[in-house]
Every structure is written in C-alpha cells, then in structure tokens.
Amino acid sequence: MASQAPVVLITGSAHGIGFATAQKFFANGYNVAISDLNEGDIETALKELDPSGDRSIGVKVDVTSRPDIEAGVAKIISRFARLDVLINNAGNFRQGATETYSDSDWDQITSVHLDGAFKASQIAYPHLKKSPAGAIVSISSIAARVGLPKRASYNVSKAGIEALTRTLAVEWASDGIRVNAVAPGFTESRNMKDLEDKGLTTPAKLLAAIPLGRFAKMSEQAAAIYFLASIEASFITGQTLVVDGGTTIDIRI
C-alpha cells in the first residue's frame, strides 16, 4: 500500500544544500526522493537520511536528459504513487572570462541549472497537479541579481530560473501548484570550499560582503526552501526569497 505521506523530489541532493533540504523534509514527515548523478553518493546519502529505507528512494538522474527525469519520476510514482513537491536544486559551476567562453562552456551550465529546472518542472507537472498541495521551489542565487564577474552562464541561468518561477506560478496557479524560488547567498558548503581551494576567493573577502558577518548554514537555506514548499506558505507564489545575510542590499559608500 502506498504511503499517504507527501512526497518530495530533490534534484542534486546527495550533498550540500540539497541533502540538508532532504533532511529537513524527512524530519517533517515527507517521503524523500534523493536524486543525483552518482549512485554511490545516492546510496551514502540514503543510509544517513533513512537507514530503514521505509521513507526514501534514490533515483539516478541527469537533469539535462528528459528521458532520465521521466524515468526517475516514474520510479518515484511506482514506489509512492504520488509526487507533491519538486525542488530544482541540481547545479554545477564554471568560472571564466566571458570573452573566452566556448559554446560548450555556456551550455554546460545553462543545460543543468535552467534547462534542468524547466524539464523537471514540466515532467513533474501532471503529478503535482493531482496533489492537494503541489509546490515547486527552484534554487536561484544572489548571482541572479548582481553582476558577479566571470560567471556569465551561471548568472544568466539563475536569473532565468527566477523568470521561469514567475511564469509557472501564473500559468499553474489554477492547477493548485505554487511555484517559488530561494536565492542563497554565500553558504558553508562543498562548493564554497572548492572555490577557496582553487584560489578563486577567500573567506575574508566573502565575509566582508555580508552585513551579518558570517556565512549561511546549509540548514538555514534548507529551512527557507522547506517553508516555501509548506502549507505555512500557502498564499505565496511567484516569489524569490533571498537568503543572503543582507549581501544584495548592502552598499557601503
């Protein structure tokens, strides 16, 4: 018999903010689908999240592939007979001067962040429409609203996610599906550590840009994501919640 608990699919959720989000939903009674590219990473995440395996499922999905997403969603429906929430979290990163970008460099980022969010939302739509509280939360970034240099494809992808969020919110409101986004600022994560290790930034430089004077915790980003998907946000749609410690509203002159 299928569980009556609501079901959430979180793309790119074997690590980082995605996994913290999986933990948040799991703690609040959801059945959770962990989705990522690496099966080993998925299994490790599932063992930590839900040792019994009763309320979770792993789906190996490349969000650039429509057949992959379709197969992943079908597996979730086969197991739980429903899908109530989609979190478009899958992402990657590339840094480089815009004049040096190849088409492949550009496509590598946009195909995951923006195209992936579009495809996953479209594929999830008929199932979310059946839910009594269907919701989508896509992960944007402060990069959507400031001109971070040498991140053209990333910045544009995140801005596109916010535009997609507003469009789907209007189109799918009559179907009972709310669509929102969260724009994280600088957060303690593996990606942040990778940038530091590559010498692309330093903690001191980033902290100087945050009025609250610290990095966000992944659990704080997860809390914002969960809130927008929850019944507590039942009259909120088409919005982007910026969780950045004040970075994007600070101008020091």
Folded structure, characterized:
The chain has 253 residues and is α/β, with parallel strands linked by helices. The chain has one domain (7-187, 219-244): Rossmann fold (3-Layer(aba) Sandwich), CATH 3.40.50.720. Helix content is 43%, strand content 14%. The chain contains eight helices and seven strands, in the order βαβαβαβαβαβαααβ. The protein has helices at 16-27, 39-49, 66-80, 103-128, 152-172, 190-197, 203-207, 218-229; strands at residues 7-10, 31-36, 56-60, 85-88, 135-139, 178-184, 240-243. It has a seven-stranded parallel beta sheet with strand order 3-2-1-4-5-6-7, with helices on both faces. α1 (16-27) packs across α8 and α4 (103-128) runs parallel beside α5 (152-172). The chain is globular and about 55 Å long.
Reconstruct the topology from this structure:
Elements: E1 7-10, H1 16-27, E2 31-36, H2 39-49, E3 56-60, H3 66-80, E4 85-88, H4 103-128, E5 135-139, H5 152-172, E6 178-184, H6 190-197, H7 203-207, H8 218-229, E7 240-243
Parallel strand pairs: 1-2, 1-4, 2-3, 4-5, 5-6, 6-7
The percentage helix is: 40-55%
Radius of gyration: 18 Å
Within the CATH hierarchy, at the fold level, what is the topology?
Answer: Rossmann fold
Could you name the ranges where pLDDT drops below 50 across 5 or more consecutive residues? none
Beta percentage is: 5-15%
